[in-house]
Amino acid sequence: MKFQKYANSFKDRPKYVSNCIKAFVAGGIICLIGHFIKDGFLSIGMNQETAGTWATVVLVCTAQLLTGFGVYDILGKLGGAGCSVPITGFANSVVAPAMEYKREGPVLGVGSKIFSLAGPVILLGLATSWAVGLIKWVLQIIF
After folding, report:
1. Among the listed residues 13, 18, 24, 22, the one whose alpha carbon sits nearest the alpha carbon of residue 77
2. Predicted confidence (pLDDT) per residue in 7-65, tens digit
3. Do residues 82 and 30 lie in contact, with contact meaning Cβ atoms separated by under 8 Å?
4. Where are the domains of the chain?
């Protein structure tokens, strides 16, 4: 018990407040960039839905390129969860394992590892949406 207290005295304490501020700023900047991209598409005559879709595509493709060049990892270290939570973080979580395992070949490397991080998110997202849809359907029948 004494040793554990002694050992813990050398550990760095997490910087919760500064990490939250960094995440808020990083996520806000990503969302602001997405909003500017969407406004750009709106200014050339696209409707709201189409502009939003294309802005998402541009953000995802940009995040994939930045991951491929190793820049998104640096941004992720600086922004923490602020870079992981938006759609750009999802794109990064798909591309990063593919880049890491590309030496093992297109099937056993990239093909088998590309969704190692994003797969559980996709699975739980689909399962949750199915469950919510089922609950809504049952409630509509009852009420």
Report:
1. 22
2. 787 888 888 899 999 999 999 999 999 999 999 999 999 999 999 999 999 999 999 99
3. yes
4. 13-100
